[in-house]
């Protein structure tokens, strides 16, 4: 996920509280590894919304986080932090259509969005919004499930990303996803970052993932047999995971952790944010 280069980060919002939590995560990631931060709101209206004041306030939030001085100018975000901010209000489009249209037509490295736990029309009937685009265009998406506070504080911007769960499979090679998890853990969890690799299946079939001991994180390896989704979710709860990181396009038979129905079930019941990597 952008190891060694700056990212274009895209945050769709429906102005809900869960979207506000997702905004905090998107903004924090923009500070750490971004140079472009786009916020989009849409709805099937005849005219664009006049409620621009409802958009998340980037400057005000950065001031409350102590990264900008109170009363900073509109240019301060770029001048001080190097982040270009764009806010877009689209009309005559459903949320799903608008989000996928933006991802397809604009350079996007990471999508950060809220994930509803029901099937209501929202930005996140989450997998249906950006899942197909993740697979097609090779981007990453961070989903913040409804009711989950996540690992970034809205109040002060502090990050607490210590325990990361990475379910792995035989195909594709999981190393890129593992490196993304480790890099994010180091960036937001520092020396306390701990990455747990989980393989659901027979221990003898667990993928060989290379020399993780050379990556500056604490590492654990777990193998368990059982239903894939239940095992991933129970392990996330057991280790009090702050984040689940999974490859978005996984194949590999009955134990593929990111088959379509598994993706949606994990997003529905995850006790923490879920990062789907397109790499």
Can you give me a brief rundown of this structure?
The chain has two domains: 7-145, 3-Layer(aba) Sandwich (Rossmann fold), CATH 3.40.50.620; 163-277, 3-Layer(aba) Sandwich (Rossmann fold). The chain is built from eight helices and ten strands.
How is this structure best described in words?
This protein has 279 residues and is an alpha/beta fold. The chain folds into 2 domains: 139 residues, HUPs (Rossmann fold); 115 residues, Rossmann fold (3-Layer(aba) Sandwich). The chain contains 8 helices and 10 strands. It has a 10-stranded mixed sheet, with helices on both faces. The termini are close together. About 4% of the residues have low confidence.
Number of alpha- plus pi-helical segments:
8
Widest sheet: strand order?
Answer: 3-2-1-4-5-10-9-6-7-8
Reading the helices and strands in chain order gives EHEHHEHEHEEHEEHEHE
Distance between the termini: 8 Å
Could you say what the CATH topology of the largest domain is called? Rossmann fold
Spell out the CATH superfamily of the largest domain: HUPs
